[in-house]
Write a structure and sequence with these properties.
5-stranded mixed beta sheet; elongated; 11-stranded mixed beta sheet; 531 residues; Rossmann fold
């Protein structure tokens, strides 16, 4: 029997993924912001706005937030021919795929087991992205390709078709994900009636047929007056015992002289409505609406090409999260995701490298927190302000080359920064003990790390070992040591920078997509293939 071939997307440089440095994050208290008073008991203040390259920022978050993010929404660069001068040569396509792959792999690690990721994209890369996500998240975890009507006005200057939609690819992390229901309105209840004065209230008829063929569901139904009703082609929706229980409860009735079966679906039992895969602009907003929302809260002439309306993000957060959950957007743009998550009582993390982090996102979030932003979804959720966020920037690279070309510890690092950075590199959680100087971080209950720039001597280690409990172990990271390590089996000593030089790529601060700066490739690139 032939083995089933696996579909795999290949492209130039797919296997050349960067070895990312796990940077630490530095808070800038002057740019962090919070309300002057609590508005409710549920105000959230630990939201995070991170300024810096989003790939390095995601890596920086990985240790603390792996498995904790409930919902990720990203609106990455779409890689359209309009944006990139030499798009047709295929090189930019490979770079875009590499950019997405490295980020999606970390985003998957950040997702909780019951989490989901929602990716806005257009047709240019949609189908390539779908195959890539199948590979990263698992094809069985694909939930939907949502069509969002981002424009309602025809573009008569379009060369072929006037584009009116974008897509949103939706994947879950695992089967533990539960999709919430949307609220019902009177419009959604118009099909429910109560012509027979059923005590359970209004109802509508539902399908009695099995969606898939099953022989054990193909039984004849003999009605109370003796009529015989043949089964549907695939069989009934229930086994015979369950069928008659529903007859007894009144959920199933016989109509038209007992020649037909009718199933009742009661309005009182509907906890919400299942979302559809087409989202119209009048329901979730359009790009024009989003542009106006940003303009109302940010006095800046720069406009975004593809902003997302607050109602669109509201629907995603409503379906994918509950109050208090973490929401992440690593292509924050104008800050819509954070603004909506904040108003809806979710914790949020936004990452943005562009200067509009300061010109758009911070002013916008300040107005949200102050309660002066009454646009978007504010009135719908009765937003009154409150809460806050902490502003972080990426620390510089831990190592740099001196004038002789040798790797050294970056002089910008003080003792605390160095200790925290080494915790990340060695897989420890930075948590300095206020009373024990050598307990700067832990990997387990009894395994500790201590980082110092001093010369570590035999006498120093002897003093530490005297304080250690019998089952405790210690990793010491230092620039130099003079110790007989065989004397201390519970202590491991590593030299900086030698111990971490080959672990990752140091000295690189920017992994962003800068297609326009690329030179023209002289020879024809390899053709991309889908196996």
């Amino acid at each position: 029997m032939a083995q089933k071939q696996k579909l795999e997307l290949t492209w130039i440089g797919k296997d050349e993924q960067p070895k990312l440095e796990p940077r630490i994050l530095l808070e800038d208290l002057e740019l962090s912001y919070h309300a002057k008073e609590r508005v409710t008991e549920n105000d959230i203040f630990d939201n995070r706005l991170i300024f810096g390259d989003n790939l390095l920022a995601l890596k920086a978050l990985e240790q603390e937030f792996a498995g904790r993010i409930k919902c990720i929404f990203i609106d990455p660069p779409y890689n359209t021919g309009n944006a990139f001068e030499h798009y047709d040569d295929g090189l930019e396509h490979s770079i875009w795929l590499n950019m997405m792959k490295s980020r999606l792999e970390i985003l998957k690690n950040l997702l909780s087991d019951d989490g989901s990721i929602w990716i806005a994209i257009d047709d240019t890369e949609l189908h390539y992205l779908k195959v890539m996500c199948d590979e990263i998240f698992g094809r069985s975890n694909f939930l939907a390709n949502i069509i969002w009507q981002h424009s309602v006005q025809s573009k008569n200057d379009a060369k072929f078709f006037s584009l009116h939609h974008n897509s949103i690819l939706v994947y879950r992390k695992s089967e533990k994900f539960v999709l919430n229901r949307l609220p019902r309105t009177e419009e959604h209840n118009t099909a429910y009636r109560n012509p027979d004065n059923d005590p359970k209230g209004p109802w509508r008829s539902g399908d009695v047929r099995s969606p898939n063929y099953r022989e054990n569901l193909r039984y004849k139904v003999i009605t109370p007056n003796g009529n015989v009703i043949e089964p549907p082609e695939n069989g009934w929706r229930w086994n015979e015992e369950t069928f008659w229980k529903k007859v007894d409860s009144g959920e199933i009735i016989f109509v038209e002289n007992e020649t037909r079966v009718l199933r009742k679906i009661y309005l009182s039992e509907q906890k919400g409505r299942v979302p559809e895969t087409i989202w119209f602009g009048n329901e979730v907003g359009t790009t024009r609406e989003a542009t106006n929302e940003v303009a109302r809260v940010v006095s800046n002439e720069e406009k975004f090409a593809t902003p997302k309306p607050e109602r669109l993000i509201q629907r995603i957060i409503e379906l994918a999260t509950n109050v208090g959950d973490w929401v992440l957007d690593s292509f924050a743009g104008s800050g819509t995701t954070g603004a909506v998550a904040h108003k809806m009582g979710r914790r949020w993390i936004m990452i943005e490298l562009g200067e509009h982090c300061h010109t758009h996102i911070i002013p916008r979030m300040k107005k949200v927190i102050d309660g002066t932003d009454q646009g978007g979804i504010s009135k719908a959720v009765n937003w009154q302000g409150g809460g806050g966020f902490r502003y972080y920037k990426l620390a510089p690279s831990l190592l740099k080359k001196d004038k002789f070309g040798n790797w050294i510890i970056n002089p910008e690092y003080n003792a605390e920064m160095l200790a925290e950075a080494m915790c990340k590199h060695e897989g420890f959680t930075y948590n300095p003990d206020p009373e024990v100087f050598w307990k700067q971080g832990q990997s387990t209950e009894n395994d500790f790390i201590y980082t110092t720039t001093q010369l570590v001597t035999q006498q120093m280690v002897e003093g530490i070992v005297e304080q250690m409990k019998e089952n405790e172990t210690l990793l010491i990271c230092c620039k130099a040591f003079n110790v007989n390590i065989d004397d201390f089996p519970q202590v491991t000593i590593k030299k900086i920078p030698q111990a971490i030089l080959n672990k990752c790529e140091f000295g690189r601060d920017d992994y962003s997509l800068k297609i326009n700066e690329l030179p023209m490739k002289e020879k024809e690139p390899e053709q991309l293939e889908l196996f």
